[in-house]
Specification:
mainly alpha, two-stranded antiparallel sheet, 45 helices, about 60% helix, flat, nucleus, transport
């Protein structure tokens, strides 16, 4: 069978070959070779082909990837892999082959070291990746909780305790930490009370700004934080830097006082914001203020120490500061009838310690008087020191001439620096007045506390050269402190890792005001310091010591932005003030919008910031945006009207809180929105004329009304449009809203059970419908009396399409439709029919019928249908609704007449009334037929059934 098949295949192949030979072109040669011969010929052709070109192209492609193809090919060609794992290469080492053993150990050590390093690098990478992921997640979770309002402060477990003398003077554990007392009240109540105390200061500040006077905001904040020593000290630092007086003269003579009173608002803005680095005078003032704050704080420590140890102090009746310091030295250094070793006694007294502590509390003149009392003895031991001290004390910048400074430096380096018995306080005095050895920042037994160390650094700051790169400049000290970081100044003070806020005080001393606010806000203390952060930012913005971020630089996550400096020094910090304020007021703005606005009024203070370009106007826009957001978030009602103002029943307006504070937002009232601006004239006249103001109507009222309208809060939007003087817009909004209200009845709207159910929506929807109808009637009544919303301009001319008049007409007709629905549901279908006929929307009058019974004047109905396209859009949308209402009214009246209920007269009168109703029903059907495609088939069918009921 197989041979037969093969034979048939062979014969078929031959036949195919013959066919191809017969049909091929004459110029095509034939191939008479077997497969083996063809393969051999192909191999010979391949061997003759030169493949060097392909190799060159391949090498070119590999060279682009820095791969040497030719060198690799040669290496592979000379590779002998036969002995790679042969037994000769794995011979065991002989016990006596020391060199091979060492070489093998060295190789193994290299391999293990490489593997260990690779493993450590891999583990470090994954550990860093995990930490970064966790840190980012914690940051996002924290921001999410803030967005949801779930930031709840955590109570500190610290309580007050009696500390020893060393604890009160050594270390910052008692002198700088917050003084805690056990409390039994809920923490939320504590936070609320604290926020109210701070809020009163902001309200007073804005009132003073409206009155054109200055306000000691930092002193007021210090009084509000009187239960927190650390926060009070932080505000004290700012008081010393700004030189803000505790109070202002009384206002008996207001005009003279306003002209002569000091100006606090934006006092330092020009010096601080004009360039990335504060002006030289401001840097000196910052360093001096930081030193004075530390001096004042240490004076209170000395007083508490002396008064708590009266027997050791032996203060006596001398009230001088020098006697107080003498008593303090006795408490600290006098033990068992003798002074502690290490102190150099002059005539039996530790003069150097007394002089140092007097300088430490800022009493330089008292220190000089002490030196003069021991002048002979001091000159004998340290000649020339008293004269140098006098020159240093009398200098306004506490500096010495170069010659005297070099003399003191020689004594300091030659005799005192390396001496083991030198009094440390004398060493500190030499170092201080001559500003020696600035790089060595600690002095043993002198800078024993953090505050002492800081005071020594700021006391040695010298800005006379004006060079920020100088080791004794404030900028150099700031670099050192920032390098140390928060962990060196802010150890955890509780089991949950709460902090006292001391790092913020350190940043204030350095002039890093934005970093200070951010450190308080981002503190790991359960949000308990965020209140202080916001109010610190308020005080800084008021004095012009806060640089705000632009939109391009700012972030929605972090309030602090660090921008690169043009000089290549420290980055320039800036603060997203609007983000900070919004995160703070968001938690209470719904309940108390007026207080939230008080904080928004702070943002326009930074409108004068010159750089980056445009950032000042961005602060105004941010303030306006927050105002609009607060108005939208505030609930309606009397409180809402108290916020933005309102209209009384007689059409007169009463201003709210916001319109009376427009100068704080750099806004001016619009003439058409507030014709009577007497309440604002007094405050507006106090604004600087150089400040550009913007229109309250265009910036606040109209955008907010549009936002309220999009949020389906029509009554509030209408009130804002009315306050803005957009009366035609008010009527237009009413027409649209009433149209939606009527159209929401649907096609089943009727006077029967079904329609009654549709109209009697329960709950909030019914209340809103009633409120809208009431508001519309009141507004139209007032507008009709005052001539508003007529579509005419102020001169009485038409505005073109007379949209206002068309909207008013639509509102009147829609209100009649709603009234007809109410009458119909109450059973007064005759009155409902009369009201619907008065709208003239449907041809229901008897003039549409001819003399014959049931005939209708089609021309009049057609003309009425053509007029339909000229109706208001809201009325066109409600066509199915009021057609159904008309047919229900006709059917209801006809049913009453036929049943004899409420009909007086004989059969003739009843018959005449029914004939009229039939004519009106037929006219209604003709009218609906002409407008058939504007309604659904269900509506047309419902009308047809009603027509049949009337005709029966």
């Amino acid at each position: 069978m197989a041979s037969t098949d093969l034979s048939s295949i062979l014969s078929a192949s031959k036949d195919l070959t013959k066919h191809l030979l017969n049909s091929k072109p004459p110029d095509l040669p034939s191939v008479n070779l077997s497969l083996e011969q063809i393969e051999a010929q192909s191999r010979r052709l391949v061997s003759k082909h030169d493949s060097s070109g392909d190799v060159n192209r391949a090498n070119y492609l590999l060279a682009q990837a820095s791969v040497d193809g030719s060198a690799l090919s040669q290496s592979i060609a000379h590779l002998n892999a036969s002995t790679t794992f042969s037994s000769s290469s794995l011979q065991p080492l002989q016990d006596t082959d020391v060199s091979s053993f060492l070489r093998h150990s060295h190789e193994q050590n290299l391999i293990s070291t490489i593997e260990h390093g690779r493993k450590e690098t891999q583990d470090s990478f994954y550990r860093m990746l995990e930490d970064r992921t966790a840190r980012d997640w914690e940051e996002k979770k924290k921001r999410l909780f803030e967005q949801l309002g779930a930031s709840v402060p955590v109570a500190s477990s610290l309580t007050t305790s009696t500390t020893s003398l060393a604890a009160s003077t050594m270390g910052m554990s008692s002198s700088m930490m917050k003084k805690q007392v056990p409390v039994s009240a809920p923490l939320s109540l504590q936070m609320h009370s604290k926020m109210l105390a701070y809020d009163r200061t902001v309200v007073a500040l804005n009132s003073a700004r409206l009155g054109g006077t200055s306000y000691p905001i930092i002193h007021a904040l210090t009084d509000a934080a009187n239960d927190n020593n650390q926060i009070a000290f932080m505000f004290t630092v700012l008081v010393k830097i700004t030189q803000e007086p505790p109070s202002l003269p009384p206002l008996e003579h207001a005009s003279a006082h306003i002209l002569n009173s000091p100006v606090f608002e934006r006092k330092y803005a020009k010096a601080y914001l004009a360039s990335p680095a504060p002006a030289l005078s401001l840097r000196k003032q910052i360093a001096t203020g930081a030193r004075q704050a530390l001096e004042e704080q240490y004076l209170s420590i000395i007083q508490r120490t002396v008064h708590s140890h009266p027997s050791e102090a032996q203060l006596g009746g001398d009230p001088s500061t020098a006697n107080l310091v003498r008593a303090f030295c006795a408490v600290r250094f006098y033990r068992q009838g003798e002074w502690l070793s290490g102190l150099e006694l002059v005539k039996g007294s530790p003069v150097w310690a007394q002089v140092f502590f007097l300088v430490r509390i800022g009493e330089v003149s008292e220190a000089f008087q002490v030196l003069m009392r021991f002048k002979d003895a001091v000159d004998a031991r340290e000649p020339g020191f008293i004269d140098a001290f006098r020159i240093w004390a009398e200098s306004s910048e506490r500096s010495l001439p170069r010659l005297i400074r070099d003399q003191l430096a020689g004594v300091y380096n030659a005799h005192m620096l390396q001496a083991q018995t030198t009094d440390p306080f004398k060493l500190a005095l030499y170092k201080l007045i001559a500003r020696l050895d600035v790089g060595r920042r600690s002095i043993p037994n002198v800078t024993t506390t953090t505050e002492d160390w800081l005071w020594m650094q700021f006391a040695m700051v010298d800005e006379s050269s004006g060079d920020e790169n100088d080791d004794s400049s404030l900028a150099s000290l700031t670099k050192v402190l920032l390098a140390y970081g928060e962990r060196h100044f802010e150890p955890a003070t509780g089991s949950v890792g709460q902090k006292s806020g001391f790092w913020a005080s350190v940043l204030l001393m350095c002039g890093q005001f934005e970093r200070a606010v951010a450190s308080l806000w981002d503190h790991d203390s359960g949000g308990s310091l965020q209140v202080e952060a916001v109010h610190l930012a308020v005080a800084l913005a008021y004095h012009g010591l806060l640089r705000v971020s632009s939109k391009a630089e700012g972030s929605d996550v972090n309030i602090l932005t660090l921008s690169p400096s043009a000089t290549g020094t420290q980055p320039i910090p800036s603060l997203a003030l609007h983000t900070l304020i919004w995160r703070y007021i968001r938690q209470f703005v719904k309940m108390d919008a007026k207080e939230g606005l008080q904080y928004v009024y702070i943002l326009p203070l930074s409108a004068d910031q010159p750089s980056p370009p445009g950032v000042g106007h961005e602060q105004l826009e941010a303030a306006w945006e927050l105002v609009r957001r607060i108005i939208v978030m505030a609930n309606g009602g009397p409180m809402w009207e108290e916020l933005v103002g309102g209209v009384k029943g007689d059409g007169t307006r009463f201003p709210g809180v916001l319109p009376t504070h427009l100068p704080l937002l750099r806004l001016s009232p619009s003439p058409d929105s507030y014709p009577s601006t007497q309440s604002l004239s007094s405050s507006s006249s106090l604004r600087p004329t150089s400040l550009q103001t913007f229109d309250y109507k265009s910036q606040i009222l109209l955008p907010t009304a549009s936002s309220l309208l999009s949020n389906d809060r029509l009554p509030d939007a209408i009130k804002l449009y009315d306050l803005a003087g957009e009366y035609d817009t008010v009527v237009g909004c009413l027409a649209q809203a009433l149209g939606n209200l009527v159209a929401s009845g649907g096609t089943t709207l009727s006077f029967g059970a079904g329609g009654g159910t549709a109209w009697s929506a329960a709950g909030e929807q019914q209340d809103r419908a009633k409120e809208l109808e009431k508001t519309a009637r009141e507004i139209l009544t007032v507008y009709e009396r005052l001539g508003r919303g007529t579509g005419l301009g102020a001169s009485g001319s038409s505005s073109g399409t007379n949209a206002g008049g068309k909207d008013r007409d639509a509102c009147v007709k829609l209100l009649k439709i709603l009234e007809a629905g109410e009458r119909g549901r109450d059973g007064h279908v005759e009155r409902a029919l009369e009201i619907l006929e008065s709208t003239s929307l449907v041809p229901l009058d008897v003039n549409v019928a001819s003399g014959k019974e049931g005939d209708v004047d089609v021309m009049k109905v057609t003309r009425k249908a053509e007029e339909f396209t000229q109706q208001h859009e809201a009325l066109q949308r409600c066509l199915p609704v009021y057609l159904v209402m008309c047919m229900d009214a006709l059917s209801g009246v006809a049913s009453k007449i036929k049943s004899g209920v409420g009909v007086h007269g004989g059969e003739a009168q009843k018959r005449a009334a029914v004939i009229v109703l039939r004519k009106k029903s037929r006219a209604l059907m003709v009218y609906a037929g002409l407008l058939k495609y504007r309604m659904s088939p269900e509506v047309y069918g419902y009308l047809a059934r009603g027509d049949v009921e009337v005709a029966l």
